[in-house]
Amino acid sequence: MHFEVLTLFPEMLTPVFEASIIGRARQTGCISVTCTDIRAYTKDKHRRVDDTPYGGGYGMVMQCQPVVDCIRGVKEKLTGSTRVIYMSPQGRLFNNDICKEYAGYDNLILLCGHYEGIDERIIELEVDEELSVGNYVLTGGELPAAIVVDAVARRIDGVLPAGECFEDESLQDGLLEYPQYTRPREFEGLCVPEVLLNGNHAEIEKWRRAESLKRTLAKRPDLLNKES
Length: 228
Ligand code: 4H4
Description:
By secondary structure, the protein is of the alpha/beta class. The chain has two domains: about 1-155, Alpha/beta knot (3-Layer(aba) Sandwich); about 170-225, tRNA(m1g37)methyltransferase, domain 2 (Trp Operon Repressor, Chain A), CATH 1.10.1270. About 35% of the residues lie in helices and about 20% in strands. It is built from seven helices and nine strands, in the order E-H-H-E-E-E-H-E-H-E-H-E-H-E-E-H. The protein has helices at about 10-20, 20-30, 65-75, 95-100, 120-125, 140-155, 200-220; strands at about 1-5, 30-35, 50, 60, 80-95, 105-110, 130, 185, 190. It has a five-stranded parallel sheet, with helices on both faces. Helix 3 (about 65-75) runs parallel beside helix 5. About 25% of the residues are buried.
């Protein structure tokens, strides 16, 4: 699967996509990730990408030509199914189901806005959908794009280390995950629960299920009311 991130700040994302699981998946060829600088598609000597909004108002708006040409320039090099996604608070809220849906594409093009957003005609001409990572306005779409790449890439075969599997539900059976512990057995007077140390897997599973229920009730009772 190929991820193409269109951004004014590729330097923001390069380190993120070179590290950890995503970095390893790129090296092994499970996925490819490219960050393309929208500014490379400008045609004026000042490499301008934004301008003031028609009708007045504060802030700047990203102009059509560099963004539309960047999307088209990238698209024409891709084969297979492709979806163009604009990271915006106005989009549908990113969740596990969307993650699953996106993992079915050959290519995802993630457009990162900046300033007050982008000229509406870009969306009309080239964007398949807007996608939001939360009901708040960020400075740019780069962090949301990194979230999407990370979450979707984890669902691609070979990305997660052998033995690990993505959580098909973002929660286990709709519950929050049980508490996790690792060495040492005691830290500043706090001990690992005995049940986890005796190797009785049936008992461990029972304890984990009880803990998941307990913490879901305490932290996210709303999850317990959901239709399963
Ligand atoms: C895009 C700000 C659109 C405002 C942006 C608008 C998010 C988010 C985000 C930089 C860009 C911001 N992207 N989830 N939340 N005019 N992106 O804040 O549509 O309100 O994904 S606008």
